[in-house]
Amino acid sequence: MQKGIDFLEANPDVVAYYAPCQLWDEVNQQSIFEAFYVSEKKTFASDQHGKTELWNFLHARHVWPEHAIYRRDALDKILVNRGPAYWCFTDLANAINTGAVHFHDRPYYRNITAHPIGSCVKLGDQQCLIEFDSYRAGLEVLAYDLFEGVPLDPEIFGKINLMIRQFIWVRIEVAARILLSQGRHAEATQYQKRLAVTRSY
Q: How many angstroms separate the CA atoms of 66 and 111, rounded?
């Protein structure tokens, strides 16, 4: 975490420092997975070019910007207007409308899933079974904020909507896998049917 704080202090134009979440096996002392793993560090300016780059980056790497260190003097502008839309996308929209945002390639946060005294259930595994509308709303609000005032022809507008659907499809696939692993085959089958139908248009 100190590296993130040092980065913000060295780059006063950056208001948010994002990094992956590492799933950690404390029993075997090893990383299981690093969410939104990126191979390079990337800073996005708060101008329209930076916002467009950010949108494409999120979708190309399926990034969930849930773990961040915020600059204190920007915090009141970032953590506002939270509602039914998934907060990590609306917070990101507020952040880049306030200043530049940075995505780092290494995690500063560990979610311990296996420990000698017991195992933990990852909250996101429960959320992704039911919160598809919240996720979609978050992406739609983010898209609106990133492209507000930019004239978009119907083709580009259609691509943005397709990218949002594709983002949600990946999450539904994850939900189906989790349900299958839990033996909840009827529920998993419903999600698989949903994917089959929505991907047909």
A: 12
- pTM of the predicted model, to two decimals? 0.84
What is the pLDDT at residue 39? 73
Nearest to 71 by CA among 7, 127, 129: 7
Which tokens go with 137?
A: 């709303």
Domain of residue 121: give its range. 2-198
Range 118-125 average pLDDT? 58
The neighbour count for residue 155, using CB atoms within 10 Å, is 7
Work out how many domains the chain is built from and give that number.
1
Rounded CA-CA distance 133/120 in Å is: 26
Write out pLDDT tens, residues 145-161. Answer: 999 999 888 999 899 99
151: helix, strand or coil: coil
24: enclosing H helix or E strand: strand 21-25
CA distance linking residue 4 with residue 18, whole number of Å = 8
